[in-house]
Write a structure and sequence with these properties.
Keywords: Membrane, Transmembrane, Transmembrane helix. InterPro entries: DUF4191. This protein has eight helices and four strands, in the order ααααβββαβααα. It is an alpha+beta fold. It folds into two domains: 81 residues, no CATH class; 117 residues, no CATH class. A four-stranded mixed β-sheet has the order 1-2-3-4, sandwiched between helices. Helix 5 links the parallel strand 3 and strand 4.
Length: 233
Amino acid sequence: MARKETAADAANAGRLKQIALTYKMTRKADTKIGLVLAAVGIGTLGVFLAIGFLIGHPVYLGIFGLLIALLATAIVFGRRAERAAFGQMEGQPGAAAAVLDNIGRGWTTTPAVAMNRSQDVVHRAVGKAGIVLVAEGNPNRVKTLLAAEKKKMNRIVADVPVHDLIVGNGEGQVELKKLRTTMLKLPRVLTGPQVTATNDRLRALGDLMSNMPLPKGPMPKGMKLPKGGPRGR
């Protein structure tokens, strides 16, 4: 029994530490986060207390209002923390891959299936919506990478729909913060076994990183890719 309590205490301490760390990271990008959370919590509790006094039940409405205030504060904190995280990631290489890794169950992500010398890159995700190619980099250059990768997908898995998205803030592009939502809204056309079969067929291709002839261990300082290095496939 004591062991279970110790494990529970350790888990709670870990959660509190994680919340504190998330708050500190969020405050770097959102300096008003403390004032906003205080306003939401106090404002929500104040409204319920006022209603409680009006109807003659301040204690009941106060307790209920406290619970609602905590919930509202948690929701606002989560959204602002997510917005701050996307703001810090936006424009950074590999940001789209980080979002894809956290898209949720049912999706298999393979980062960097195609890349060029300018470090424009295409990632691949497979789910019940089919194959989704997500590109990040210069919009004009990544179109060539996407076209080549899409052609290859159609040749290997012709019976599976292939979608392509470009991450960015321009016309026809998908903002990084909306990437996960956009993919989850795609129509589901494959069954679970079909998704598994598609992943098995694509797994044989490997990915750009696993196919690169690089030595094991850390890359030496100053090392550059050879002129015959990998390009968009």
